[in-house]
Structures are given as structure tokens and as C-alpha cells.
């Protein structure tokens, strides 16, 4: 459906785009997985901020009228799953209590960061979505099609 005008410009019936239809379909799926990874990263960071003894949930116990009358035994909340676009790095951090360091005490913490190039996915997707009226107005994408394919494979893991 699209015809190649220049090395990075493709024409459709709506205007000129920086990528072909197949690459855009991959980019659209990758953006969906990237958005999900953003939520997973936030969930992991919320979980990581808590001390281990606070990573629990309790079920509500209710009476015959449906009123809460207590709480069940604490159950450990598991570590949230991470997408293939995210890298978890573990390190040791000084333990703090009430804003003061506890001398000699270390605790294991983790930091989550993006795979190289993953932070550009949202911007590249927004650029590829909107057509331009002229071929000269089309900007080159910041991610090459083979990098998009590689990131898509990582995200599906």
C-alpha cells in the first residue's frame, strides 16, 4: 500500500511517514509493551521502597452482615514481575532508621533501569503515528527498524 519515496520516507494515502506499515505495526506493539513496562517499573519501585516486614497483605474477615471484624494472618506479597525491557541491578545500601544511618548495617536493595534505547520508544511511536503533508517534513526515526525488532523480542520475554 505504501510506496518508497526516499530512504526513510514512505507514502500512504494520508501523507508521508518515517517508516513502512510493517515497522509501524511492530512499533505499535512495542509501545504497548513499553507502557506496560512503565507500570511494572512503578510497581516494583513501590514494592522495593518497603521494608521486608512490610511487604505483606492481610485478608479482611467479615461477619454475616458483611462488616469487617478483623484481619487474617499476614501473607507475603511476591516481588512484581519485570518486562524484558527492564534490567534489575542489585546492590548493598546502608540501613537507615528514622533518617539516621545504622553503623555497619547493610541491606540488599535493587534498582531498575531501561535496556539501552527503550526510553526512546514512546517518542519514536508518536513521531511515526502522524503523517506529514510533504516528504521534506518527515524526520528520521531515532530507532532503526532492526533495533525496533530486537527490542520487541526482548519485551515479549
Description:
The protein is an alpha+beta fold and 157 residues long. The chain has one domain. Helix content is 32%, strand content 29%. It has three helices and nine strands, in the order E-E-E-H-E-E-E-E-E-E-H-H. The protein has helices at 21-49, 121-129, 145-156; strands at 3-4, 10-12, 15-17, 56-57, 60-62, 68-71, 75-76, 86-97, 100-114. A three-stranded antiparallel sheet has the order 1-2-3, with no helix packed on it. Strands 4-7 form a two-stranded antiparallel sheet. Helix 1 packs antiparallel against helix 2 (121-129) and helix 1 (21-49) packs across helix 3. The chain starts with a strand and ends with a helix.
SSE class: alpha+beta
**Mind telling me the C-alpha Rg?**
23 Å
What share of residues is helical?
Answer: 25-40%
Number of helices: 3
The overall number of domains is: 1
Uncertain regions spanning at least 5 consecutive residues: 1-6
How much β-strand is present in the residues?
A: 25-35%
Report strand order across the widest sheet: 1-2-3
Distance between the termini: 32 Å
Which outline best applies? elongated
What is the strand tally?
Answer: 9
Order of helix and strand elements from N to C terminus: EEEHEEEEEEHH
Q: Tell me about the biggest sheet?
A: 3 strands, antiparallel
- Average of pLDDT: 83
